Amino acid sequence: MIESPLAPSRAAVPRGQVLRRGLLANPLLLVGGGLVLLIAIVAIFAPLLAPLPGDAGTATHPFTVLQPPSAAHLFGADQVGRDILSRVIYGTRVSPVIAAVVLVIACAIGVPLGVVAGYLGGWLDELIMRVTDVFLAFPPLLLALALAAVLPASLTSVTIAIAAAWWPWYTRLIRGQAASVAGRPHVEACQVLGVSRFRIIFRHILPNSITPLLVQVPLDVGGVILTASALSFLGLGAQDPVPDWGLMTAEGQSYFTPDWWLVVFPGLAILLTAFAFNLLGDGLRDLLDPRRSFT
Amino acid sequence: MLVFVARRISLAILVIAGVIVVTFVVAHVVPGDPAATWAGPHATAAQITQARRFLGLNRPLPVQLVSYLGGIAAGNLGTSIHTHRPVLSDIATAAPATLELVITALLLAITFGVPLGLASARRPGRPADQVIRAGSILAASMPVFWMALILQLIFSQRLHVLPAAGQYSPGLLFTHPLLKRTGSPVIDALIAGNWPMLGSSLTHLILPVVVVAAFPAGLIARLVRAQVLDTIGDMHILNARALGFGERQIFSRFAMKQAWIPVSAEVALLFGYSLVNTFLVESTFDWPGLGSYAAASTTTLDTPAILGVTLFVAIAYVLANLAVDIVQAAIDPRIRLR
Amino acid sequence: MSTGPADTGRPTDTARLAISDLKISLGHREVVVSITDLRLDHAEIVGLAGESGSGKSLTTLAILGLAHTIGASVSGSIMLDGRELTGLAPQALREIRGRRIAAIFQSPSTAFSPVHRVGTVMTMALRWHGSARSEAADRAAQAMRQVMLSPDLMRRYPSQLSGGQLQRVAIALAVALRAEVLLADEPTSALDVTVQAEVLDLLRDLRDCDGMSVLFISHDLAVVAELCDRVAVMRQGMIVEQGQTSRVLSAPASPYTAELLESVPKLPSRG
Lengths: 295, 338, 271
Prior knowledge:
heterotrimer, B: mainly alpha, 15 helices, 78% helix, globular, C: alpha/beta, six-stranded mixed beta sheet, four-stranded antiparallel beta sheet, 24% strand
């Protein structure tokens, strides 16, 4: 989790002109958005862009093992001779996808719990929030790490582990918002009129409570990508031959520092991807949070 | 104030209890067989069954949990399957090095992050601001494990200005032996007046500390900027200006004092975050701390050790948050009255 | 009752604060405030009356030299005791702000930093303007007594004081700094009527005992009638009428003033 939940709870629904003006005046958003678009394009067109697509898989080239960057291999070759550029390109299909799945799961768990706790209140609220508090007592990476350590090493395990560590943040965020929405006059009016709780939740509470998520989720993508690559670096996630950047960095460690290209390029990819999403998230937050138009 | 502190402490104890339960449950989802690991690769089936009984792993889970809780109350965190030493003593040996690293890193992060954030807030939208913001976001996007390797490459390998690994030059142990008192070479050397050792341990501290401090510094700078810009529109700032205070005072004394509240909360979060980051960094620098211990434990699936480290870090995190809560209440009287 | 200058327009050299041809523009828009002539004499309370949005608060900011903080630009002349303020260097302006021209605003509860004790802010301001540490503490305590507050209250945080008390602390600050001019922007609008009366009494005392010049900005004509020696009526950035309060309010020359008077609720006379 990049940001503590303290920061984004003031997101508001954007008005049309704020969006239009903001898009142009916000360099972070433009650069971030542009980079993210670039990454998406690379991911989609990977087979066309990668010089040796097969190297993202199980290909082995004994005769090009550990070759430094050259015209043939722009990013050099790894310990089994695979083209690092191609593997880095295919890596764009791994990290962002994991991040997306993690965040979807985290929302799927966190949002209902938050809405229920915030709207229904009472002992249910207490119970959910105490459990959430205990989960939040762990630094995010720690819980994910502990879980990933006990599950069989794979990308699926990493996804589950991170999602399990991430949902409490959203529960807490949504719960606060839901509680305040529940107190609004029009909701009380609905209750008095006898509208079913179910309908109130779906038509009033839910749509109005998820606005903080619009800011928080894009901000979190970078954090999830970093966490996932850290877990793969520790050997708890992707296994060979998956072209995961964290795994590539870990594998390259043994040949560091002479064969530096095995470590530098995959890590650079992680950095740029996280940077792109963080810029985008920050830019979006500037846009959607009306108290922050300071550029 | 006392009531507030008492309430907070009892809450923290409850949370720690929950943390222990969760950690225990997580660690026992393990698919591997800890008894087999403990008994060693050449153990017979009979020996493994014996081991299981010895380690208490054949009892039902709730019983194991209660016995574990009892053990914790007595100060016993179990025995490491890998090192065969009590986990608590392993942690006690490794903790000082990590704490030295993390605390120094956080201090560095605050020292750089706060002024940068203030500078950014004073000229919002201008080039200096954009650069600092971009830099902060970059620092927050850096994979720690990669940064450690890269800095090692540049400063140690290529430029030869900083040492690559270890807490101090091993050779110095012979010429200037260090008496281990607190576990932190820097403090021990300072107390003993052992200057060569002090110098060596300080230079060895630089690279790991910079790596661990980068993310917190970036985050603190961004938070300070956001908080100060938030406050700067407040009426009391207008009043302060009307009183004749200069811009520098307005930002550093009025706006910043309020900002310390969310910043200190963030520092607590960053303490926990950084403790875990050491898991990714210590092996690279041969830093004999919890990080190396944890990394080794995950590789060998040493359940009691993983459990112990997770507990230690989580409890340290809870305590850090508690400390910050109390500091916040001391700064802002409104918090005490809630 | 002060024997200040006669009705509008006649320039006098005794004016403490003299504003002429003041034009304030916001951003790229045209002139939002245009004041040809407004004066504040020694020991007098001048009311600046008008509805919200008429530019009263902007004028306050301009006099303090703080118009730029909301993106407004100022042209014209603002003279304090014959010294031109517009175009003055920031350093010089900082010496004047607080020390010679003080200001209090509408919402006393937000006037002070919530994380500082009010006494700390007071002594900080005094020391900023040159007092030694012990002198600052003494002057602050003395000022508190002058506004009928116990100096013990200086140890409190703003959240621990009432609106009326906070407004009086704000006035105490101006007194402690020995300001000559007090700009009071709707200082009683957020207060109860009884508390309001106390603050108004205080302002009168400052005028009579300390010779302070007060610019009292308010949308409430009833209060203006009660307190101010002279009044200027402002509408859409311009002064439509000014003169002795009794004259302006009983026989308004401008139709707008007449309109404003109409909207003041009148209590039915008893018996």
